[in-house]
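User: Could you write out the 3D structure of this protein bound to alpha-methylisocitric acid? I've included everything you need below.
Assistant: Certainly. Input first, then the structure.
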Amino acid sequence: MGLTLTEKILKAHTNDELIKGNTIKIHIDQTLTQDATGTMAYLEFLSMGIDKVRTELSVSYVDHNTLQNGFMNMDDHEFLQSVANKHGIVFSKAGNGICHQLHLENYAKPGKTLLGSDSHTPTSSGIGCLAIGAGGLDVACAMAGRDFAIVCPKVVNVKLVGKLRDGVSAKDIIIHLLGIMTVKGGVNKVIEYTGEGVKTLSVPDRATITNMGAELGATTSVFPSDENTREFLRLQEREEDYIPLSADADAVYDEEYTIDLSTLNPTLSCPSMPDIAKEVDELKGIKVNQVLIGSCTNSSYQDFIKVASILKGNKVHPSVSLGIAPGSKAVLTMITKSGILETLLEAGARILESACGPCIGMGQSPCTDGVSLRTFNRNFYGRSGTKSAQVYLCSPEVAAYSAIKGEIANPLGLKMDLWEQPKTFNKNKALFIEPKFDGEIKMGPNIKPLPKFQPIGKNIKCKVMLSCPDNITTDHIMPAGANVLPYRSNIEKISEFCFYQIDEKFHDDCIANGGGIIVAGANYGQGSSREHAAIAPRYLGIKCVVAESFARIHKKNLINFGILPIEVKFVADKFDDVEINISDNFDVELKNLTKNNVVKAHVELNDEEKELINKGGLLNLA
Ligand code: MIC
Ligand code: SF4
């Protein structure tokens, strides 16, 4: 029986048998961190007392908190740079670009494994590696040379046939797929792309698709490594990293979908969930206030060729603000040299820093009730910084054309080839700093020591602190944005914002009651890998989350910090009194004393995870 591409890469990185659903441990070749999750990850790494990272390559990027309004963000950057220098990690300074775009350009290699403390790490899988997002602690462990445990994934075959029409692009493929599979359809699965249509997609196209596989909840998504991959690596002057890789012709998949590219239309994700997919003609005519082009999903040079081809000779509509953030310094340099930048400026675009920026709510919040069209990957409630805003996700083509028209408009059939594809890529590495293995670790006053947590115990009597519906995101649990991100290294302070988006009293109620439990619907914790969404609730005394199901990364983060994720439907309201009894084998009895109902569940944990819960989290084991 033939192997899938996923199985081939997994087999080369594990000694465990690939039995679907079992926990397997895989060896990690490369890691990446970004600043917003990185400070925690490196505090955790430092607590392990290891001199030099034990991976082939580890890179520390600064791209999220680049506003520096106050000393806090810059303190974080100084800390990160000093750790990188001392412990053998390549450091990418602020202004160099977004971690995923940079990693794809500079370091991702077919056949390798990459673990990153950011949920969009799978972007690099567009090149044919297995790139997985995780919490900072898991990445710290990988840097320390420990294997990474995952549930051996099911493999989904998405067969692409035909060719996209002008005006339709990779973003439309993934939004279309999100409409079919939903934001929980990919949990514990790898999405593998096959079929003749794959050949029509460049590596940046593929990376747009694997990037947004995170929105499916997938462990990762992967494309074969083929002649397009070789060409991309040649442009990056690293053709030697190329190896051909693909699934066997008789590979067996767990699920299959076929997408005929020639029939796809431009498709948007509607407010406020990436899987609310609608074709552009259903939305045509909606007036737009803001258009933003950039983020790790759509900020490649190739994207800007299309955007500039549409904008050339046109003006941005008077009622639209168009912001553009090239994904990396290399892309910015290339659009400058080719004249694309001039075209964007002449049309009336604002040029933003090469960083995450508005995608993570660092500036550019829309006006009250504003309609914002973004080429990004997440439109969760409140993430833009304006709760009443209507945020749509779309391709660069839809974004650029709508910016001119002042309303959602259909770019189908437009020609977008006024500029040629590059002959070579800009390789200036001025903002990459190689480690020298010396110096002292710099810890400014905003960087607080990691808190210690007590184990939750076997008998818990407490109150429900929050009862919430399906698809709660980590942006609901631990919001980001310009007011909150500066406190990513300060758990006491950041916990004040916990659940602020949906329950402003959550923090105070937890303090008043000594914590309690959270009750939720399905797919709890989808979205970001930020472990603050586990640490802050734990800090506030949350002991268990009882949900119908969990997102993969968040479930692991909860366990890492000693919170028990109990998977069962439990009817409860805020402030209900509950009693939870946990056996040594993690059979759990949940009693709602207020409503007089009892539910039983079993929490499936491997031996290591049982120990984590029993000891109060991974930090107590270090
Ligand atoms: C995001 O897109 O939500 C982030 C910000 O990149 C997060 C990481 C974080 O919260 O720092 C992610 O995707 O993991
Ligand atoms: Fe940055 Fe947005 Fe990408 Fe997250 S999704 S890494 S915030 S650009």
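The mean pLDDT is 97.
User: Perfect, thank you.
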